[in-house]
Amino acid sequence: MVNILWMTRKGEAYVGAPSTRHGFEQAVNQITHSVFAGEEWPLHIPNERLEDTVERLMPDVDWVIDKDLNLHVKKPVDLNVAHFISDLHGKHHYGVTTPGGHIDLLNRVGYRTIFLRYPEIHGTSSPSNVYKYALKPNGYWVPWSFDPKRFHPHRTSRYEATFIGSTNNSVYPLRAQIRAELEKLGETHKVFLAESPRGRTFERRIADHLAGNRYAEVLGQSNMFIFDCSKYRYPLQKFFEGLGSGCLVMATKPGGAEALGLIDGKTYVEINPVNWRDKLHYYLENLGAARKIANSGHKMALKYHTHDVRAKQFVRYLKLGLNSPKQTITGDDVA
User: Fold this and answer.
1) Which residues in 21-133 belong to E strands, given as ranges?
2) CATH number of the domain located at residue range(s) 3-145+306-323 in this protein
3) Residue 71, CB half-sphere, CA atoms under 13 Å: how many?
4) Least crowded by CB within 10 Å, which of 25, 28, 77, 327?
5) What is the pLDDT of residue 16?
6) pLDDT confidence of residue 205
């Protein structure tokens, strides 16, 4: 059994990525020997050196999963330290606004492995596969996943179409248009509209926002979940949460779509700046076609994208990373 020391902050009570990561970490905990010592966990000691934490809690550790925002601290050479990253376009906490700048930070501090939530980056001046050839540590693609006990179809449907998310045009070029169209459709259709909670990651508690179980309940009662996955073409959490909830997911095509099992017209509906309005109206009026794709997408998500499935993939990569030389970014077997 793999021994893992997690230095990540406890994310259970927070909106979005921290909560999703917490669910994933607990799935990993079920199949490994894991100890949690990050901020807000009972075993956490502020400002303790990593070497001292290892000695105190897990001297026989195989892997340490580093905390966030720790890219200026050199990692002990005698420990296998790994790190999860999501946004590939930069790291604004450090004033880094390019993929290359982010990669430089990751390469300098001594990580053994980087786990990427996204396989490639679009919408910047860098090549889409820049992480694949420029990242010095081993790189493994570990996409987002979902908890089927939280995200699942409900017996009754309340909403014909749902939009939940930021409408920042600089990142999501279509979302403001989509929301405006749904507002018009609200006169004749049952729609649900909400903005994403604003604020920094660990300033947004679930209890204060439409998040957690309340967010999952809305999706579980929705026929359709429509969004733009960003100019970066990230396979966001929304894909798996929507599919897991039994929605017809309508979205711009993310990087790695085929590898994730996202097939246009079969498991989701791909939209673009030209066709999104026509497709939205078509599937609102053709419920049978919409339900067929939604059902197929739901089955696919349950097979390939739950936390339990992703945890097994992650542990397999940990074992590979212990015994392998430098890897290019891999993970094409996620679906």
Assistant:
1) 33-36, 63-65, 81-85, 113-116
2) 3.40.50
3) 21
4) 77
5) 85
6) 46
